[in-house]
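Friendly challenge for the regulars: who can give me the structure tokens for this chain first? No prize, just bragging rights.
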Amino acid sequence: MRVDVVTAAHAPNARYLAAAWSSLRAQTHRDWRWVIQLDGTDAGPLRAALRACGAASDPRVSVGIHSTTEGPAVSRNLALGRSTAPLIQNLDADDELEPSALSDLSHALDGHHLAGFAAGQARDLLPSGELREHQLPLSGGWLARGVLLEHWSTETGRYRLPIHPAGVMWRRDLLLSLGGWAAMRGMEDTGTLMAASARAGGVLIGAPTLRYRKHPEQISGRKSNFAGGGAQISLIRQRALHLLTAPGWQPSSPPSRSDQRGTS
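First reply, four minutes later:
Bragging rights claimed.
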């Protein structure tokens, strides 16, 4: 099944696009397309980086430009609007996918027809090249509706997400039903993941699928005067709890296997 890999890119991350591209070319799952949206008023460095690594001339690559600075959520949603594949894989411009990521995640969804999303383990990619693993609070397997919300710790000094939201593979139908990525500052992944978990079950696999690059320019590590973090967390929780009271998401296409699974 084809996968559209969605990437929002802005100029400070231009230097990492070649590594992201190399990780895509190394995928064992061959049926994919890279849908990139260039964010910011100056797309020159990003376009130059894509030309230098060969991605710009590859027919599997689709590049969109909107010429203003809108941030990750808007940029991803513009790319989502240009996508056509039934499966959507997020890949931030400064991260890398593990070689079997698309294969492992798409197979997990194929085996669980009622799952709206699949995620794997994320390893930190340090400046030294070392990969650092993290122990997740959840075991691999079926993720029932709302379980991610239950395991999301937001207490001061103890903040922790149950899975890494940046490397999730989505069924496009579910993502569209949520309105795409949430309009949050620095929490667009988290807001979307918690809403998705409230609408549909998912699958967590034991294998690593994402290399999450740690570097000084990354948006999540920047200091900011933004004072709305607590209000965002409250909104995410309220929305998820509301969605939990509504009927669950149902896939629009029939299962591909007679022995369909989804709640095992």
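The chain has eight helices and ten strands. The first strand starts at residue 3 and ends at 10. Your move, everyone else.
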